Amino acid sequence: MIAPAYTSQTCSYCGFVHKLNRNSEIFKCRNCDYTLDADYNASLNILNLGLAQQSMVAGNMKGNVCL
Ligand SMILES: [Zn+2]
Prior knowledge:
The chain is α+β, with helices and mostly antiparallel strands.
């Protein structure tokens, strides 16, 4: 379970959570170096959480990126 408070600290690409991922307005993942606007990253995480709850299938955010 990821609380909404952690959405700004979670990498929307790989799911890595670290409080130092967010540096003011910029999000940079300390695991995979994915970098983007911090608020946009948080909104992507909220979207991902919503989709996961709807599908009831995804319990694993890692390795769940299919492009
Ligand atoms: Zn990452």
